[in-house]
Each structure stands twice: as structure tokens, then as C-alpha cells.
């Protein structure tokens, strides 16, 4: 199998629901990162052999294969194909896995993987059209939304509301510090937004992190799913808009083109987990990817575990006996937002840039997914 390297990666800043990016169609937003990632890599658009995008709510402006529409908007030649996939919250991470597999097998040399989601313009669950799950499924499993699943998971692990709120407050503190120190500037491509007065605004700073998100403030928020529960809007990921993309190659192709890759993909995993307690998957996915890589959690210099809800990374830390100082040091989705289809490659870009910035070697990314699944990826920074 051939070595797969990441040459470049970019993302938009993440917009709040009904925020800065709410006036931009998702296909046009994805086109921004597709155009930018090839420019930064110094690769001809016509040499890209496939564009694989994650997008969860594939209806309306996000329907009809948004990957193909986006690459054409971005000016790729017509011979470049595109495909859109849905692995729920891990969709763009799975796009990376599919791209890496195509390259490793020798089918392709250059592939873009990424994702997009405008949760403002295309609301979550709108693609279900109000249809309930099949009775043949619900006869076998208790099918609930992720909020209820979170309440069940919290009870199962014995977490307290205070723990979730404390973790969430720290997510905001870390994200605000990262923004203040400019840690995200290198990975963000500014989006040009037309204002009502005809002027153009350059959107390049994540909107989600909030000053004053203390434990005391978060503790005052009402629970959403159970009156006597623990899950609130403050300890769950934010509804967001955004896009992200990475460009992958075989190591041979990068050498041939004289391109210095940023990282290589060491190992990949995807697992199914309990569809009721659907957010526990990152634990097994991480164990499996570490085994595939023949590495331990102690070998990892940093990790990104998506903060769908606060108990997800807390449970992961407990199960993996991992170092909390290495977990999401720049904040996570509770503060920075979670544009569903874009989150996988968004986090991968952040992870890759952190390894470069801190001169570290290994990074692990894992994301929980609806209906009980999870992906995990290990990358190694290349010097």
C-alpha cells in the first residue's frame, strides 16, 4: 500500500446559526475552500482526480450532489468528478478515509476531501421530511435523538451537571485564547460577504466562542431534553455554518511535483456502536486505530475528540486513560461550533497545524456519529 500524505488544508471561520455566513449558499461556501486548497498547494485543478465532500443534510441547496456543484462553481474543469457522502458528524473525516484508500490502493494520485454544512439555510433533520424510523428498526433498538442519548450516556457514566459545565466553560476559554493568539489564522481562508450597503466584509474569525461563559453562567441555563436532566445549550455543540477541505496525494506524486507534504496518514478506523448510546463510538474507534498504528495513547502528542456534547470527550478521557492537557487545547465544538459535514476536516486541519506549530509528531482525531458510529484517524507531522 502506498503512503498517503496531506499536502494542504484550509477551512472557513465557523459562523453561528443566522450569523455571518447565513447569507451564503453551502455550495458557494464549499467552493471557497476548494479553490483555496489547490491554490495553497500549488496544484492544477485539472490534476485533481476526485472531490469527496461530507454533507449531512442533503436536501435543498445541499442536495443534488453538492460536491459536484461546488467544484464547478470553484472553476475546476468538467472532467473532475465529485461525490457527496453522509457519515453523520464524521462525514468529512470519512471523506478523508475514502480519499486515502483510493490513493493507497493506486486508483488515484490526487484527491480533495472536505465537507460543508449550512445549518442556518438547511436546518438539521429537514432531509427526513418528517418520516419516522421504520418499526422494524424500532422493534430492535430504542431510537432516540442525540440529546436523549446524551442524557442516557451521562447517567451511565455517572457524570454530574457541574462536570459538564466546567468542561464547557474551559472549551470557551481555550478557544478565546487560541483566537487571541492567532493560532487559527493560518488555517482559515477569509470569506467575502456582501453587506446590505454594498460594501464587502472579510469574515475570518470564528463566531462561536463567548466571553463570560463561566461555570456560574452555564449553570443557569435550562435543560433541554429532561426537566431533571443535565444537557443544556451550554454543554452541547453549537449549530453552525462552515466548510473545510484537505488535499491528499501519494508520497510519490508529491515528490514528483516537488511538493513538501505537511503530514502523513498513519492509520484509519471506523466502527459501529450502540445506536441508543450512539455517542460512545470514539472510544472503540480510538482503540482500534491505535492498534492498527501499533502505537499507544501515550505516543499521541495531541488529540481532537469532537465535542458533540461535553460528556463525549470526558468519557473518552476516562476510557482511554488519556492526558486531559492534550485534549482539544484550542477549544472544541462547544465553543467553536459544529457545522456537521465540515467538522471532520476542520478538526483535521486544526490538528495538523497544531503539530506543526508545536513541533510535535503524532495526532489523533475521533468523532462520534448519529445512529452509533465513529471514525478515528492518526496522522504524523512530516519535517
TrEMBL record:
Q: Which GO terms describe its molecular function?
A: acetyl-CoA C-acyltransferase activity
- Put simply, this protein is called Acetyl-CoA acetyltransferase family protein
Question: The organism's lineage?
Answer: Bacteria, Bacillati, Bacillota, Bacilli, Bacillales
Q: Which residues form the active site?
A: 89, 338, 368
InterPro entries named in the record: Thiolase, Thiolase-like, Thiolase_AS, Thiolase_C, Thiolase_CS, Thiolase_N
Residue ranges of domain Thiolase N-terminal in the record: 4-252
Which organism does this sequence originate in?
Answer: Ureibacillus chungkukjangi
SUPFAM superfamilies registered for this protein in UniProt: Thiolase-like (SSF53901)
* PANTHER family according to UniProt: ACETYL-COA C-ACYLTRANSFERASE, BLR7806 PROTEIN
Pfam families, alphabetically? Thiolase_C, Thiolase_N
* Keywords associated with the record: Acyltransferase, Transferase
Q: Which family does it belong to?
A: Belongs to the thiolase-like superfamily. Thiolase family.
Q: Where is the Thiolase C-terminal domain?
A: 260-381
| Presence of the UniProt keyword Transferase in the record | yes
Q: Which domain of life is it from?
A: Bacteria
Amino acid at each position: 500500500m502506498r503512503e498517503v500524505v496531506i499536502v494542504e488544508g484550509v477551512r472557513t471561520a465557523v459562523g453561528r446559526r443566522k450569523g455571518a455566513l447565513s447569507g451564503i449558499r453551502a455550495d458557494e461556501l464549499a467552493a471557497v475552500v476548494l479553490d483555496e486548497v489547490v491554490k495553497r498547494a500549488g496544484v492544477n485543478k485539472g490534476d485533481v482526480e476526485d472531490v469527496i465532500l461530507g454533507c449531512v443534510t442533503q436536501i435543498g441547496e445541499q442536495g443534488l450532489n453538492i460536491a459536484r456543484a461546488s467544484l464547478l462553481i470553484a472553476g475546476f474543469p468538467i472532467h473532475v468528478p465529485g461525490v457527496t457522502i453522509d457519515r453523520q458528524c464524521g462525514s468529512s473525516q470519512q471523506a478523508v478515509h475514502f480519499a486515502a484508500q483510493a490513493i493507497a490502493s493506486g486508483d488515484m494520485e490526487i484527491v480533495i476531501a472536505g465537507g460543508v454544512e449550512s445549518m442556518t439555510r438547511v436546518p438539521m433533520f429537514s432531509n427526513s421530511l418528517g418520516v419516522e424510523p421504520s418499526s422494524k428498526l424500532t422493534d430492535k433498538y430504542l431510537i432516540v435523538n442525540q440529546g436523549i442519548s446524551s442524557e442516557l450516556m451521562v447517567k451511565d457514566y455517572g457524570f454530574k451537571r457541574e462536570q459538564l459545565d466546567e468542561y464547557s466553560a474551559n472549551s470557551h476559554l481555550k478557544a478565546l485564547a487560541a483566537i487571541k493568539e492567532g493560532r487559527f489564522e493560518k488555517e482559515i481562508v477569509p470569506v467575502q460577504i456582501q453587506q446590505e450597503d454594498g460594501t464587502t466584509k472579510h469574515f475570518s474569525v470564528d463566531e462561536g466562542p463567548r466571553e463570560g461563559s463561566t461555570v456560574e453562567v452555564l449553570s443557569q441555563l435550562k435543560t433541554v431534553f429532561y426537566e431533571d436532566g443535565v444537557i443544556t445549550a451550554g454543554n452541547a455543540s453549537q449549530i453552525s455554518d462552515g466548510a473545510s477541505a484537505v488535499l491528499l496525494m501519494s508520497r510519490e506524486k508529491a515528490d514528483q511535483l516537488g511538493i513538501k507534504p505537511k503530514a502523513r496518514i498513519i492509520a484509519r478506523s471506523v466502527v459501529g456502536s450502540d445506536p441508543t448510546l450512539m455517542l460512545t463510538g470514539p472510544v472503540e474507534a480510538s482503540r482500534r486505530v491505535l492498534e492498527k498504528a501499533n502505537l499507544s495513547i501515550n505516543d499521541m502528542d495531541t488529540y481532537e475528540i469532537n465535542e458533540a456534547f461535553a460528556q463525549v470527550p470526558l468519557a473518552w478521557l476516562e476510557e482511554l486513560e488519556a492526558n486531559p492537557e492534550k485534549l482539544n487545547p484550542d477549544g472544541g465544538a462547544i465553543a467553536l461550533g459544529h457545522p456537521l459535514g465540515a467538522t471532520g476536516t476542520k478538526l483535521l486541519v486544526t490538528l495538523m497545524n497544531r503539530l506543526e506549530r508545536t513541533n510535535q509528531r503524532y495526532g489523533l482525531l475521533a468523532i462520534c456519529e448519529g445512529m452509533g458510529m465513529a471514525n478515528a484517524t492518526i496522522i504524523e507531522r512530516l519535517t
